[in-house]
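Standup notes, protein team

Yesterday: finished cleaning the Lynx canadensis set.
Today: peptidyl-tRNA hydrolase structure.
Blockers: none.

Input for peptidyl-tRNA hydrolase:
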Amino acid sequence: MRPDGCRRATLWLSRAMSVLTLEPRPAGKRWLVAGLGNPGLPGTRHSVGLAVLGHLARRLGVADTWARDRRCAADLAVASLEDAQLVLLRPRRLMNASGRSVARAAELFGLTAEEVYLVHDELDKPLGKVALKLGGSARGHNGVRSCISCLNSHAMPRLRIGIGRPAHPDTVQAHVLGSFSAAEQELLPLLLERATDMLLDHIRERSQRPSLGPDLSEFLPP
């Protein structure tokens, strides 16, 4: 059974979809890109998704426009990518409850699960490796599990950022929640650049298809 917060988010999303699909949507694709991590713990391996969002915001020229939205307990920024619009989201909830923020934002912007990108750390890939996975299970990632539960879907594309798995199982938690070493930090700039390139290339390719979506400006927090 899904937690109460997730059930409420799923009901919000269902109501929004039933209303918005009745209205014509202007041309231009819209996407939600959520960076998963633990707020207040930047620089840790588990929060590398937030680091990618920060790099993405700088690349798109919206790093100074983050605004807190209490409706979804997250920081939001909206950017243009050619003819597409991107909603960047940094949940203010802990990783295990981040799906509530993602689902609420999807409802606010009238987006389906297929239009929501998740950016998160991946234990089973070495540091420096980046992969884009189209849907599927959470593979043990609590943030992805929360998003699947609250969106009631496995369809979200995920940008998986390798952080490497330690040799000893007993050290996994400390590894995930720990900060990058000095040697690893030297690799981060290239890693963030590669992850951003892969994400933007994929969004550009999908945005070439026929599109539906509401005007984002009316949903921005005051």
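Follow-up from PR in the comments: Helices lie at 4-20, 48-59, 98-108, 142-151, 172-177, 182-207.
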